[in-house]
Design goal:
Length: 420
């Protein structure tokens, strides 16, 4: 059977050209896109399979730049009363009380929900490490970031030795694949010791192409901790590790810079509290910021500074965070909340935050996030609105307003979902 396939669709949003293609086609060969254009421009090709998606908007699959599938079963079960620090403490207790099989169930549920809502690439922070094998066999594209936290642990050196050994065994048994890679995620600059940050930084510096991500600048409590070295967060950290190096007169971004981490960092998650110097550092080190609108709303964090970050040319993409602080693993919902808070931003720019920009941040800007010859065939189909009128006509706006599940999904040229 031929490996070539032509998909027809009423609209194609390539995310490469500003205009949607009306009545278009995409020709695929195996995992790659060969050609894209208008239906009438397609020459007859022998032994090619054809699939007409009809009244559909076909576009690149979404990239969720930040989630924690481990916590999919915690939806509505971790209140944030008592502040962000208290929420983190409750999460640590819940994590300790969860078995590997419970984590696996949560991950499977999260994979399904993500796929239902058009996500074809997941950047998952793995606390339990259970998601790596599951995502590797899931059919979705994935970056699994193994999380490090040594707050409450006596020796950063011993922690990192064990971490490396665990990693060596896992990656030997289940090596990375064309659709699944692993990366590293020091949890935050206040739950990872300076010593461990340095050890992990050295490791990343001596190994090629390890994707990295860190939560940073998320809450007011964190800001106070780095500015003043005081407050409930500092007290809690001192109680857990009396010898912990408590910083002062700095910011989360500047502290990570002092630890040598900014040049090694791909995705900086949250960055709700940033000053001008922070933004200049993020830009200089080409760090992409991941904003999680649903989780941000849940905690009531300081307003996200999209305009100033954009002014500093810091790329921003979107993530769902976990269901312990959000209601769905749907990037449609994240885009809607973003649009509500930043109404001046055009739909096309918001869509680039779940396609083009995260692909670039992951080093795949030349092959993912667009419908373009040579690019990977990670595609989704969204049913066209039946509404009449000028508003309903713009496919970019339609995607932003869409609330259902996708009707078609394909990863690496393999159809994953076809609803009729
Ligand atoms: Zn997170």
């Amino acid at each position: 059977m031929s490996q070539r396939l032509v998909l027809f669709s009423r609209y194609i949003l390539t995310m490469d050209k500003p205009q949607p293609i009306e009545d278009g086609f995409v020709l695929l060969h195996g995992s790659r896109i060969l050609q894209v254009g208008k239906r009438k421009e397609l020459y007859f090709l022998p032994s090619v399979r054809l699939l007409d998606l009809g009244d559909t908007i076909l576009m690149p699959g979404f990239i969720n730049a930040h989630c924690h599938l481990d916590f999919t079963n915690l939806k509505g079960r971790v209140r944030c009363r008592g502040g962000f620090r208290e929420w983190l403490r409750k999460m640590a207790v819940k994590t300790r009380g969860t078995s590997p099989s419970e984590f696996r169930k949560a991950v499977q549920k999260g994979v399904q929900e993500s796929a239902d809502y058009g996500t074809t690439t997941l950047c998952d922070i793995s606390t339990s490490w259970e998601s790596y094998r599951l995502l590797r066999g899931s059919g979705l594209r994935a970056f699994v970031f193994f999380e490090m936290i040594d707050l409450g642990k006596p020796s950063p050196k011993a922690y990192f030795r064990q971490f490396q050994e665990r990693l060596r065994v896992l990656v030997h048994e289940a090596p990375p694949t064309p659709t699944c890679r692993w990366g590293l995620s020091p949890h935050t600059p206040f739950t990872v010791s300076k010593e461990l940050l340095e050890l992990a930084g050295k490791y990343v510096g001596t190994h090629r192409d390890i994707p990295t991500t860190v939560h940073m600048g998320e809450s007011r409590e964190e800001w106070r901790y780095f500015r003043k070295g005081s407050g409930p967060m500092a007290n809690r950290i001192r109680a857990l590790n009396p010898d912990w190096n408590i910083p002062r007169h700095t910011t989360p971004v500047q502290y990570l810079n002092e630890c040598g981490w900014l040049p090694k960092l791909d995705l900086g998650v949250h960055l709700n509290t940033v000053d001008r110097r922070d933004m200049a550092l993020l830009a200089k080190n080409r760090i992409t910021v991941v904003h999680c609108p649903g989780s941000h709303e849940y905690f009531g964090h300081p307003p996200f500074r999209y305009g100033p970050l954009r002014g500093h040319r810091v790329p921003v993409c979107l993530g769902t965070d976990s269901l312990a602080s959000n209601k769905a693993l749907s990037l449609f919902r994240e885009m809607r909340i973003f649009k509500k808070n930043q109404p001046q931003v055009q739909a096309e720019e918001i869509l680039s935050m779940v396609t083009v920009k995260p692909a670039q941040a992951l080093g795949l800007g030349h092959q993912l996030g667009r419908i373009k010859p040579g690019y990977l065939a990670d595609l989704i189909g969204i049913p066209l609105s039946q509404r009449k009128g000028p508003k309903a006509a713009d496919p970019f706006d339609q995607v932003l307003r869409y609330r259902g599940k996708v009707s078609f999904a394909m990863v690496q040229g393999e159809p994953r979902l076809r609803l009729t």
